[in-house]
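Predict fold of Protein Wnt; 419 aa.
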Amino acid sequence: MTGPRLALAAALLCSCTSPVADANSWWSLAMNPIQRPEMYIIGAQPVCSQLPGLSPGQRKLCQLYQEHMVFIGEGARSAIKECQYQFRQRRWNCSTVDNTSVFGRVMKIGSRETAFTYAVSAAGVVNAISRACREGELSSCGCSRAARPKDLPRDWLWGGCGDNVEYGYRFAKEFVDAKEREKNYVRGSEEQARMLMNLQNNEAGRRAVYKLADVACKCHGVSGSCSLKTCWLQLADFRKVGDLLKEKYDSAAAMRISRKGKLELVNNRFNTPTQEDLVYVDPSPDYCLRNETTGSLGTQGRLCNKTSEGMDGCELMCCGRGYDQFKSVQVERCHCKFHWCCYVKCKKCTEIVDQYVFSVREYPISGSILALVLTGILDCNLPKFEFKHQEAGRNLRSEAVSKYAVVAGVDSCDIAQVQ
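Predicted 3D structure, encoded as tokens:
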């Protein structure tokens, strides 16, 4: 980021105030399509005033760097996608809600899950901005200017156009941290603890991208002899960033605020966290049941693995409250053959498999066991399959059937009850 712009950005940020626990978040940029700068209509209202979820400081940074906003949105989307992948087998699975808070009220709790979300979101911005620089999408940055690694062989060239991780890191720090730095909180207060927690986790996310960026090389020479190599700095696949942050989540440190206004370990037997580690200040809520107060969506309707003893197992996922079994049709490509020249042709094979889902307990039930026949999956021409509740004497109402139909992948096909 250029010097004058950084100075102006810092001056703007110092004059802004906004609560840390505001329900709105810049994460909402992932949920709303943003026009590229070249698509703006001359004389139209600036895009920054229309974007939801931005704090005052972030809105002013947006005015300085409007062309960056598209890529901040892309970074937020990749972060949400990665969060949902990493927690796909957990009770809390990073579900989004349809408002500017994105993840709902659960983010107001300074839990491990909140720590991961802040970290992966900051990482997503670094990743997206760094790549946009390399691809020439931003006027304020270009290819990486990283110094040549000392361990690179002498006869290898250091050049090419690398991902500009340095710029991505600096810009992400300015933008993502802006909201946390906009207000001075009472020293030793819960609000200050949450602000420091967010800043720590933002930094851990950015450093994860920086740490995993590595040297990539391309061979040159006659007939691929690789007599010469050109190398550059390249971002790691974002899945590796998510994997690293998930490890940090598992080892996150419980912290509390001291009278001096600094975070300190709750248990001094553990090592002090570094800038690459995640921290949290509140215990995680109970994610088993839906709770409007905490923002927990519960695990109702989630698929589980009957044979697993891990977090994705039915006993843990369903919190010991029972689960239902249904038969699902899965379609896969099979019997693939290569045809000259040059394509591969496959058949579609269907397989009926048993799946398990957390029971729908809130619906009134009576009578004997009924088989629920869900007719047609995907193209509605596949074989029928049955859905049965495990316990005798239970009859699920049609509302429950609809819920299970969604889980099973049925959308427009007919759903019927039969005796």
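The chain has two domains: 3-280, 303-418.
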